[in-house]
Amino acid sequence: MSMNKLIFPYVTNENVSVREISEYTDYGFIEGGNQLLDLSLGNCGCFPLGFKRKDIIDHVEQQMKDLPFCSGEFYTTNSAVLELSQRLYDLSQGYRSVFALSGSDAVEGALRLAQLYNGRDKFLGFKKSYHGSTYLSSSVSDATYMTGFFGKDPRCVVSDYNLDSITDDLCAVIIETASWQNGLYNPGQDFWNSLRKICTDKNIVLIVDDIAMCGGKTGTFFGWTGTVEPDIFTVGKAFTSGYFPLSATLINEKIFSKIKGQVFTHGFSYSFSLSGIYSTIAYLNIIEEERLFDQYPQILDTAKEIFHRLKDQKLIKNFNHHGLVFNLQLLNDKPLEEIFEKFLYQYGISAGMWNEGGSGLLIVIPVNATQDYFDELEFKLTIALSYYRSTFAISD
Questions:
Q1: Quick one: average pLDDT of 77-93?
Q2: For labelling alongside 147, which of 23, 36, 207, 219 has CA 20 to 30 A away?
Q3: pLDDT band at residue 337, thresholds of 50, 70 and 90?
Q4: pTM
Q5: Phi/psi of residue 326, each to 5°?
Q6: pLDDT tens-digit profile of 215-237?
Q7: Rounded Cα distance, 394 and 331, in Å
Q8: What pLDDT score was predicted for residue 15?
Q9: So what CATH class is 3-52+291-391?
Q10: Residue 103: CA count within 13 A, CB half-sphere
Q11: What ranges do the domains of the chain cover?
Q12: Which of 365, 90, 351 minimizes the C-alpha distance to 219?
């Protein structure tokens, strides 16, 4: 029996073979002898420092030898959990942490915490959004590829960024910092201000899903900073620098003061990964020690210069971005995802899972991007997009 047949769900039938990665490079990997630049940095930007930071792995390994587990029993913790909670409280200027395993887990927890706060049970999300793969998190998304098969929680509604749909009976409104399935759509500051005011006036919990945009991609640790003040926000992916899993749901003082006397039953067993706690602490230390956020303006400008050159060469229509997450607007409609992925692959580019949706090409720039990275990125994109233009019969 082929080993490929033993893996599910990544292999869905006998006609599909498993892709095997043999080695990681700084910002990509080697697969089948081909060296690929990973535009998504490990699934939607999980690895903002790239794949070679053994110092983070070494730090976590040492800590795990001393304290490998934080019990899922109530009222137990350790010094590392307390340290990270305090650092996040200080960074966010007053939000308290509930740690979880995954982004979906954090969103599910955020919706439940909102219910504890105001006792309502109706939730609103927005078109072309993504908040997770669990039942409630996918229901409040616009993830029809999941809800179409598994069903949708009837308590969840989806709006086309229409503020009139925010009614008095809502428990919470959840919105992404920037919708990556919607080409990093930004509804504008007037929308954000109005959304905050409506939720405050109606005592509706405003949840910001910052999972895809947090972790330094905007020159700050939280991607929503400067946009809106959420009641609850969720973080994950790059939150830990990617090497170990952890997510968190963070609540402001208003929510905390109302629910602090209630038991919050969510998670259990592991509830969260202690290795993820150690990894996040290590990443925060690196941000401070290497002054990564000081480098952000130059890295952002260099990325913009590259994409402006691609536009001037008429290889893309335009681009937009949220921090170091960019969306390149292609010259023509993107072909089927399988064709598009294979097309980029032959030019040394891995598009990543989040490029399966949307009409553009999503790229996340490392927060520690080097000139070598930018040279490789521009070289490979120029060749690939030149052939893309000719292959799909696109004229200037």
A1: 96
A2: 207
A3: low
A4: 0.93
A5: -115, 150
A6: 999 999 999 999 999 999 999 99
A7: 7
A8: 61
A9: alpha beta
A10: 25
A11: 3-52+291-391, 67-289
A12: 365
Q: How far apart are CA 40 and CA 27, in angstroms?
A: 9
Q: Tokens 């959990």 identify what position?
A: 81
Q: What are phi and psi of 352, to 5 degrees?
A: 85, 160
Nearest partner of 279 among 26, 1, 62, 27, judged by Cα: 62
Question: Which alpha helices (H) appear in the chain, and where do they start and end?
Answer: 54-66, 79-92, 103-118, 135-139, 144-150, 189-201, 253-259, 274-289, 292-312, 337-345, 371-391
Longest CA–CA span in the chain (Å) reads: 65
Which of 32-41, 262-271, 296-305 has the least mean pLDDT? 262-271
Higher pLDDT, 1 or 267: 267
The whole-angstrom separation of Cα 110 and Cα 127 is 19
The region that residue 221 occupies, defined by phi over 0 for left and psi between -120 and 50 for alpha, beta otherwise, is alpha
365 with 333: CB under 8 angstroms?
A: no
Q: What tens digit of pLDDT does each residue of 228-276 get?
A: 999 999 999 999 999 999 999 999 999 999 999 888 877 777 778 899 9
> Quick one: CA torsion of 240, 241, 244, 245, rounded to 10 degrees?
50
Give the CATH fold of the 67-289 domain: Aspartate Aminotransferase; domain 2 (3.40.640)
- Across the chain, mean pLDDT equals 91
| Cβ-contact 206, 199 below 8 angstroms | yes
Q: How far is CA 34 from CA 107, 155, 345, in A?
A: 37, 47, 9
In which band, very low, low, confident or very high, does the pLDDT at 334 lie, cut at 50, 70 and 90? confident
Tell me what pLDDT residue 1 has. 41
Matching fold, domains 3-52+291-391 and 67-289: no
User: Above 50 in pLDDT, residue 38?
Assistant: yes
CA distance 40 to 354: 7
| 46 alpha-carbon distance from chain centroid | 7
Nearby residues of 298 by Cβ (< 8 Å), 6 or more positions away: none
SS3 178: coil
Measured distance between the N- and C-terminal CA atoms of the chain, rounded to whole angstroms: 51
Round to whole Å and give the CA distance between 39 and 360: 13
Which helix (H) or strand (E) element contains residue 362? Answer: strand 361-364
